[in-house]
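So, can you check these tokens?
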Amino acid sequence: MSVAAASALAPQLNHRPRDPGIETAALAAIAIWAAQFTPVVSLEPPAGLLLEIEGSLKLLGGIDNVLQSIERGLQDMGYTAAIACAATATAAGLLARNGGSRVVIERSALEPVIAALPVTVLDCETSTRNTFAAIGAKRIGDLLRLPRDGLARRCGPRLLDTLDRALGKLPEARRSFTPPERFEVKLELAAEVMHSEALLFAAKRQLTQLAGFLAARGAGIQYFTFTLLHEVQNATVTGIGLVAPTRDLRHLITLTRERLAALTLRAPVRALQLTAGDIFTLAAGNYSLFQGSPHARGEWQQLVERLRARLGQDAVHGISARPDHRPEHAWYATQPGTKNMAIETRPRPLWLLEQPQPLPAIVSKPHYHNDALALIAGPERIESGWWDGADARRDYFIAQTPAHSTLWIYRERREPFGWYLHGIFG
């Protein structure tokens, strides 16, 4: 009916203009996700999707498990779908348009099932539907009982071809959908969002699509970004990095929750865009023979990723050694898990001060908190750095306080000389 008539019957009706572009993008996004079940996916615009799953049944645990997984995934992405399965693609499409969940695997059972469907499931022109009403054909079985020549003259050969393809009498040639190399999906929000935590609901839908995209490729990601689009201000871009590639949906949602919780919105958000650039081939993991293994794979990586999502990408890092005798130049930040360079060296403190702290000297003895320090090891002379302008000339000692705390101190061999605290042993 017209919008005016509908609004007269339901004054509170919330109507919106149809956007074919958004519909097409949504169908393509579902196709990207559905490729995890089969590489043969075909688009049936404006609202249909065909999956050839026969070759995947053994791998995915049978037809019931596949259909349940599809239905569950669509619900997670916020879509409502009528799902049907048949021995021919056209028959599956007709059953789905009828709205009921049906599974017809045997070709011999197709004709009675298709014959019982109403003619409204056929994709026909208005003139053809008027012809159905004029001759009293309410179900497809009524059409099958009519002479083929007369039906072709009245309704055209396209109708007969559709019926023959549904019954498996004609071959079906369909163009397969090719997923993009790069994953990028945008979601327009129903209303502007003021709090970052509320974005998680929309982000879960996009992450579900991303997990399906990665599963279809047997791949994982190590970095992805969310772009928050505002009405007037510039977009807010926030990235989430991982220690190792993954496609674990639960873990991706956990990281996103941590990141959004730490995000302060500058303006209301009207749309959310998820982008995942480089993807990496992900080998299947090996599982432990015994449950509850104390060395569960990936636990420390996931801890690092959660800390980074909450505190920032640069807040957590590893440490690697550099071949330099100067303590402040002997290390650099690395990605967690990077193999360290093996360098033979003397004992070093666990905590190195960012800037050496001057120590008072009383009767030529260094003091710390007014207590004289006992030198228990040293000196270790370090003279290095003349080539980069940060020349160091120091004699290092291991010292101990009366309370038996162990410190790492040095005596400067250049002006202004003196003693300095440089580290504390654990």
About this structure: Residues 248 and 424 are 41 Å apart (CA to CA).
